[in-house]
């Protein structure tokens, strides 16, 4: 090469670290979007069951969809589902305890079916009092965890999710956003934490399965 001539710069190649970080970010975003839409779909279906049995009552002016669900419920549930589904495998990784129990899609689908059944029972099955219903749903929710999860981290996260979600719901009802018929646990039904616990376990299982599937791609 003659003096004074400069070598034309070729296309810059990204280092392996940058490529790895970009790949993980895209993977995380895709899983988050999938979890969001799963949460939206489940919220529409399950909320419809509750409204049909007059368990929850929304003011007429916020009835905004063909599923008779307040417009803000599905996106809120979708966002929460995405956060929970991404949190479970993240906690497993940080604890160094990858979850290996029943890690196949058929088990995840059965878990979803059981969760829908628990929610359906809360709206359809008639008990003499709410205490009996709450105890029954609590047993079913713990049974769901034992059947499809069995991890200490999963149980702890489920309890934390149930506590936070119930607290947020209490605040929403207190501020008149919507209401529960026949509340027996401050402003909500006493079985509501059981539903949130089962929902957390279910979305955690979906999130773990998505994380495992994406790691094999």
Number of strands: 2
Task: Profile the largest sheet.
Answer: 2 strands, antiparallel
Strand content range: under 5%
The succession of helices and strands, N to C, reads: HEHHHHEH
Q: What would the average pLDDT be, to the nearest integer?
A: 80
Helix-residue proportion: 55-70%
What does the model show?
There is one protein chain. The chain has a two-stranded antiparallel sheet with strand order 1-2. The protein has one domain. It is an all-alpha fold and 217 residues long.
Task: Please describe the structure with a list of short key phrases separated by commas or semicolons.
6 helices; two-stranded antiparallel sheet; 217 residues; single chain; globular
Short description:
The protein contains six helices and two strands, in the order αβααααβα. With 217 residues, the chain is mainly α. A two-stranded antiparallel sheet has the order 1-2.
Secondary structure layout:
Blueprint: H1 16-52, E1 56-57, H2 73-95, H3 105-124, H4 130-148, H5 152-174, E2 179-180, H6 192-215
Antiparallel strand pairs: 1-2
Helix pairs in contact: 1-2, 1-3, 1-6, 2-5, 2-6, 3-4, 3-6, 4-6, 5-6
